């Protein structure tokens, strides 16, 4: 069965200010009702160029315990590189549908999740998200399948490879700080996630304009399955975080990287660091896009609370099991 792309649905003149009913969320989820309007949530902003490493460790671990999300500035990725990354991503989504479909993700999830696609997880109560995406691994070289990378625009590959290298530098720094924040050696956390085999998976989210943004959602509420996610959005507001029982818009800071703590870091820190519960809203007139990179352990790698963090007073709160088993439960909405 052909999947209909949201980008296509959004362009139908027959919509006439409405959206198909499978995009209308339950009342308890509708942004109009569940968002605290007019308040921008100021999640912690961390200046990575500060020379005081101890301070960075303290502020990053504090943010990861309290919020599970923070933004980093002066991270070393040039803003012009971020602009080029965004330009080639946008150009891919602006190609004719038939061309995008040449790298569509396989119809059956067991054949992989890379490629151009529309639905990722089993949808709750048959509701759909107002978003299309492209998914492909960017690191390490042994797991890259260039068949799922756009051939057009022709500079897509080179720019994404350049961005990935810079992102690895930033992520290695962050892992060091996060590790020290738990009282562990600098390299401990990355090792507990697969070390040099840690996988970097890029997703580009494409949220077309939506005639009824107050009734729909882009990505439904979730925590990321990844260890951590490093994301740049475009300038259109849309990311929301759940705090004190309500949803808040996260303030957009140009060229900042948004860091999400995901499930795997929550697990290996035995719950000290919290995976952030988040979702996205869509816009009536503008296309929102975002570029999360999910940092994940290899499929066969076992993840569990780091042994040094476990003692009589701190029994393990999570199972130790293969990442692919965590993945299976998450995708099928089964208990971990
Ligand atoms: O678009 C965003 O800002 C967040 C997207 C997201 O949460 C996801 O793709 O997992
Ligand atoms: Fe997410």
From TrEMBL:
* Origin superkingdom: Eukaryota
Query: Its Enzyme Commission number?
Result: 1.14.11.23
Q: Does the keyword Ion transport apply?
A: no
Name any cofactors this protein relies on.
L-ascorbate
Catalytic class of the enzyme: oxidoreductase
Matching SUPFAM superfamilies, A to Z?
Clavaminate synthase-like (SSF51197)
The protein in question is named FLS1
Name the source organism: Carthamus tinctorius (Safflower)
């Amino acid at each position: 069965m052909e999947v209909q792309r949201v980008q296509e649905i959004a362009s139908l003149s027959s919509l006439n200010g409405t959206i198909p009913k499978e995009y209308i969320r339950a009342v308890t989820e509708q942004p109009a009702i569940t968002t605290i309007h007019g308040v921008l949530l100021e999640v912690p902003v961390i200046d990575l160029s500060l020379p005081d490493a101890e301070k960075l460790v303290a502020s990053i671990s504090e943010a990861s315990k309290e919020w599970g999300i923070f933004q980093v500035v002066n991270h070393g990725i040039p803003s012009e590189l971020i602009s080029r990354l965004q330009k080639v991503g946008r150009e891919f989504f602006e190609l004719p549908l038939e061309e995008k479909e040449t790298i569509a993700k396989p119809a059956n999830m067991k054949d992989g999740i890379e490629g151009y696609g529309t639905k990722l997880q089993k949808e709750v109560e048959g509701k759909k998200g107002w978003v299309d995406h492209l998914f492909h691994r960017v690191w390490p070289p042994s797991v890259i399948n260039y068949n799922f990378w756009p051939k057009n625009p022709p500079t897509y590959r080179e720019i994404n490879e350049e961005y990935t290298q810079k992102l690895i530098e930033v992520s290695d720094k962050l892992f060091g700080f996060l590790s020290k924040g738990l009282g562990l050696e600098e390299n401990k956390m990355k090792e507990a996630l697969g070390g040099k085999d840690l996988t970097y998976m890029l997703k580009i989210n494409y949220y077309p304009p939506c005639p009824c943004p107050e009734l729909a959602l882009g990505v439904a509420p979730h925590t990321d399955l990844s260890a951590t996610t490093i994301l740049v959005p475009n300038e259109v507001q849309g990311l929301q975080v759940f705090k004190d029982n309500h949803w808040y818009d996260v303030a957009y800071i140009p060229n900042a990287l948004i860091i999400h703590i995901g499930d795997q870091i929550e697990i290996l820190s035995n719950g000290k660091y919290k995976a952030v519960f988040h979702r996205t809203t869509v816009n009536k007139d503008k296309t929102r896009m975002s570029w999360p990179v999910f940092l994940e352990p290899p499929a066969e790698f076992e993840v569990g609370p780091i042994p040094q963090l476990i003692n009589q007073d701190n029994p393990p709160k999570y199972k130790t099991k293969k990442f692919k088993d965590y993945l299976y439960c998450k995708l099928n909405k089964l208990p971990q």
